[in-house]
Each structure stands twice: as structure tokens, then as C-alpha cells.
Specification:
The protein starts with 16 loop residues before the first helix and ends with a helix. By secondary structure, it is mainly alpha-helical.
């Protein structure tokens, strides 16, 4: 297995001042050497910056011609890609949407014409007609003559008493 070695606590007195001094001296020395080399030619630096390596600088300035390549690929592909997307939209997506719309229209006609008009409305129209006929029949019984009402009451009571006696 792997052995874990504890790092221990940090103690400020553990800094190696000699090693830190050498590192600092090396850094400052590098800065001083760079200043000595380049500071005396500062007036000619702009002139030297205009010097171009014949093949390298144009290649770098044009960013390795990656933009030209990308635009060439885009210009080559955009026409066929646009035509493919348009064809897909026109024939695939529109075809699916038109088929779904046609199916929804057929289902709507079936539900309205078949189920609603011939089913639901027929039931309610039949109930309405039966209620109308029952009302017409009952209207004939409503004559306003008390003697007819009394006769109907007595006959109904007799039929009820007879039914109770028979089915008891």
C-alpha cells in the first residue's frame, strides 16, 4: 500500500535564507542583464520591429490562414446545408404537421358528426320528445273537474290496496 508521510507544521525559522537570497539574486540579475542588453538599443527598437521574416511573418499575421479556410468551408457548405434544411422543413416537418392536422380534422368530424350529433344529441332529443309526449298525455287528465279527480284518487287507492294484498 501507499505510505502516508506527514508534512508537519510550518515553522518560520525553517526558511533557508541563503537559498532564498540566491533565488532573489538570480531574478534581479536576469532583469539587470535584460536591461543592459536592450536599453542601449531602445532608439532602434521600432526600426528592428519592422523587419519581417519573409515567410513566417505573413503566415503569423494571417493567423495561419485559418479564417480564410473557415470562410472557404462555410461558403462551400452553406448553400447545400440551407437547401437540405429547407427540403427537410418543406417535405418532412411540414408533411408530419399536415398529416397531424388532417388526422385531427378527421377525428373532429367524427366526434362532432358521429358521437355528438348522432349520439349525444339523439339521446337528449329522445328524452325531450318523451317528456313532451308525457306532458301531452298528462294534460288530458288535467280537466279541472273535481269529480274526475276524486274518481281517479279512489281507483288509485283501490289498485294500491289490491297490490298490497296480493304481493304481501
Amino acid at each position: 500500500g501507499a505510505r502516508i508521510v506527514p508534512m508537519g507544521d510550518h515553522h518560520p525559522e525553517a526558511i533557508d535564507w541563503a537559498l532564498a537570497g540566491i533565488g532573489l539574486a538570480a531574478g534581479l540579475g536576469g532583469i539587470a542583464i535584460g536591461w543592459l542588453i536592450f536599453s542601449k538599443d531602445a532608439s532602434t527598437q521600432q526600426l528592428r520591429d519592422r523587419v519581417e521574416v519573409p515567410l513566417l511573418y505573413p503566415l503569423l499575421r494571417a493567423k495561419y490562414y485559418m479564417d480564410h479556410l473557415a470562410w472557404g468551408i462555410v461558403n462551400f457548405i452553406k448553400g447545400p446545408a440551407a437547401r437540405l434544411v429547407n427540403w427537410t422543413n418543406t417535405y418532412v416537418i411540414d408533411g408530419i404537421l399536415n398529416a397531424a392536422g388532417g388526422l385531427a380534422m378527421l377525428l373532429g368530424r367524427f366526434v362532432y358528426g358521429g358521437l355528438d350529433q348522432r349520439g349525444v344529441d339523439m339521446v337528449f332529443n329522445g328524452i325531450s320528445a318523451a317528456t313532451d309526449m308525457a306532458g301531452d298525455s298528462m294534460r288530458k287528465l288535467q280537466t279541472g273537474k273535481v269529480q274526475q279527480y276524486a274518481t281517479g284518487f279512489v281507483l288509485g287507492a283501490l289498485v294500491l290496496a289490491l297490490a298490497i294484498a296480493v304481493f304481501r
